[in-house]
């Protein structure tokens, strides 16, 4: 396997691609139907607004995590994923960040994959 590309990297990358494809499919439908996108987001009942605000708080926490964790690990330009999430979707950018983080951590370990086999008995 290429240096820095662990199975977990590919899991996160697949989730990122799915997040982009799914959200933009529905964004495309909304545009095609002439929906008032932002207006509809906040104009429904209490249960829908609860879910919407849940996602807003989650997206905010994820944005803080992306910035803080990328700085802690010395990842360059990862902060760009935060504004990108407004143009694409948090469901795309957070798993993408996790994939890039996994690759970065693997490279910091010298490209070695972590051991998954049990230690030999003494």
What do these coordinates show?
By secondary structure, the chain is mainly α. The protein has one domain (about 5-110). About 70% of the residues lie in helices and about 0% in strands. The protein has five helices and no strands. It is elongated, with a radius of gyration of 18 Å.
How far the N terminus sits from the C terminus, by CA atoms, comes to 31 Å
Number of helices: 5
Radius of gyration: 18 Å
Q: Give the integer mean of the pLDDT values.
A: 83
- Secondary structure category: mainly alpha
**Percent range for helical residues?**
55-70%
Measured by DSSP, the beta-strand proportion falls in under 5%
Helix-strand string: HHHHH
Shape: elongated
What are the low-pLDDT stretches, counting only 5+ consecutive residues below 50? none
Overall tally of domains = 1
The beta-strand count equals: 0
Largest sheet: none
């Amino acid at each position: 396997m290429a240096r820095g590309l662990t199975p977990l990297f590919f899991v996160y990358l697949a989730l990122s691609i799915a997040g982009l494809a799914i959200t933009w499919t529905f964004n495309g439908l909304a545009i095609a139907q002439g929906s008032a996108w932002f207006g509809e987001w906040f104009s429904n009942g209490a249960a829908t607004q609860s879910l919407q605000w849940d996602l807003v708080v989650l997206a905010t926490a994820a944005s803080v995590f992306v910035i803080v964790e990328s700085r802690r690990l010395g990842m360059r330009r990862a902060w760009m994923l935060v504004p990108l999430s407004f143009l694409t979707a948090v469901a795309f950018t957070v798993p993408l960040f996790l994939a890039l983080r996994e690759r970065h951590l693997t490279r910091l370990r010298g490209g070695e994959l972590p051991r998954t086999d049990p230690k030999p008995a003494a």
